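Fold this sequence, please.
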Amino acid sequence: MTGTTTDTTPHTTTDDTFRRRIRTLLGDLVLPHADDWEERGHLDPAVWRTLAEEGLLGLAHHGEGFLESAILLEELGRTGYAGVRASVGVHAYMATSYLDLFGTPEQRATYLEPARRGARLAALAITEAEAGSDLSRLGTRARPAADGGLLVSGEKLYVANGSQASFFVTLVKTREGAAPARGLTGVSLLLIDADAPGVHRTEQKMLGWRSADVCRVVFEDVAVPEDRILGRRDQALIHLIKGLDFERLVAGLLAVGGVAHCLELLEAHVRRRRIKDTPLYAHQVVRHQLAELTADHELVAQYGRHAARLHSRGKLDSRTATVLKLKATELAVRAAHVCLQFHGAQGCLDESTAARLYRDSAAGTIAAGASELLRDLI
């Protein structure tokens, strides 16, 4: 099995310098505004150009350059705002990676390059009411149009960046007749412009990820030119397998950073909070829970960096990506629960940071593959 031998390549001083730079940039760019974005439901549109100017939207999806992306993803998680990290992660990595991998030169010029400049915002439209973990039940259809293109009809749910996106990387059925028992066949990935006639978007209010701009997107006979098919027509399953491994790697690295933020908050709180003049940290039961979470985070973080190195060499396998996503996101839930518990009633207030971390952690175990599905895959 690829990836079973631990990669012991050490990090470098250059990595540390880059990490400090990214942490400072995100601290200046995200933290002063993130609460407003949570309230508004999406990032300020101007922030995408700023992210691009700082070089944060053009980092590599593949090859050795991905190691810088891995640092960015961890640091995005470390901001503590899962909605922000989901929005940026979907735009800069999950949606645009399909263009990077399978786009034609014209598609890359029209969609990928403007996305990297912050001029066009990307979204990924895959999930449906009856097609989440089981994509063989896909309901969105594309039928031939009179001009030789396609007419797309259907409904997508839980689309991050939904209301602000300029285009959707969309999974649709383009060939009828395959029996559901045969799995996901006859499907294609299409690039659909958000301002095309027949595209309708409605906000979906989520438990967490409140700044991720999650929407329901309906396509009503949307005209899509033939040259907007990404990769091979009717063969999107091949592309999805590669794309989902990458999504799970990205989701795992984001969660690793999120756990780091949660543990920093938790440790500061138990040292500051006093009961009968004794800090919570003085109690062994508290210290041991913190120690257990810290040890598990260190293991998952190292595994995440191992997975990132494998990906940078073109050797990431599905099992490694799946294990990382499963363990990192479930650790985030566990850490958020302990953080909420130790904050007591204060942590249950809707406006508290502990409550936000708790709300946000739940979606991580569902997006890009629910934990139950990932266990089956493993």
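The chain has eleven helices and ten strands. Residues 1-10 have pLDDT under 50 and may be disordered.
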